[in-house]
Recover the amino acids of this structure.
């Protein structure tokens, strides 16, 4: 299972990269705005900065909503760095753009996916990644993990290459449950990754080992 971090914060990306378990980064316009990154040139530079920190794929989202605009913007994003994956919303024009990018060797992440039918369309259009938002489904009393399960079944039925990128991950149990179901990738905040470290028995066990060592030395 690949671990992506879902942020545009360079310090957090560096911290996750230093841990040695990071496989990529996802961003979106809201995450860029949260870091105060505005204006086209600053945004493009920020994507390159992120690519220079991590080794893996970095999702950069298009702002255009029409096919021609998405293609123009996506090609410009893909030119920035070989690690860039063009992130496209799951709309009619988005699916057309996904197919265009797939035919032209540009990696894609189809985002804002909330149903198995949408995920099927993304796979048919040759998406590299599909991003079902599990946290946002949980927020409206709908089981986000169930969607991951459905997509896994459909993709396995037809051996689709599209990777399931569980997005809108909010906490450690989302990660563990996505791993049990077989999501290919998860993207979440740094806190969700660091949360996997925690167990009180690890802490108390280590404390005891160190205390016992000190007794004999
Ligand atoms: C996915 O790529 C999105 O950036 C993200 O996971 C959305 O998460 P949120 O629902 O916590 O905003």
């Amino acid at each position: 299972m690949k671990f992506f971090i879902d942020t545009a914060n360079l310090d957090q990306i560096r911290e996750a990269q230093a841990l040695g378990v990071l496989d990529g980064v996802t961003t979106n316009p809201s995450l860029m705005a949260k870091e105060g990154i505005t204006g086209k040139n600053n945004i493009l530079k920020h994507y390159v900065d992120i690519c220079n920190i991590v080794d893996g794929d970095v999702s950069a989202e298009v702002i255009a909503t029409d096919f021609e605009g998405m293609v123009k913007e996506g090609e410009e994003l893909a030119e920035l760095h070989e690690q860039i994956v063009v992130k496209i919303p799951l709309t009619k024009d988005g699916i057309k753009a996904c197919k265009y990018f797939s035919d032209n060797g540009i990696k894609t992440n189809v985002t804002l996916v909330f149903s198995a039918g949408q995920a099927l369309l993304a796979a048919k259009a040759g998406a590299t990644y599909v991003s079902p938002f599990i946290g946002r489904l949980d927020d409206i009393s709908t089981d986000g993990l169930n969607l991951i399960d459905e997509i896994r079944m459909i993709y396995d039925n037809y051996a689709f290459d599209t990777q399931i990128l569980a997005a809108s991950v909010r906490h450690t149990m989302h990660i563990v449950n996505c791993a049990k179901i077989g999501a290919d990738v998860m993207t979440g905040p740094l806190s969700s990754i660091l949360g996997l470290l925690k167990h009180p028995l690890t802490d108390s066990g280590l404390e005891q080992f160190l205390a016992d060592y000190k007794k004999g030395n």
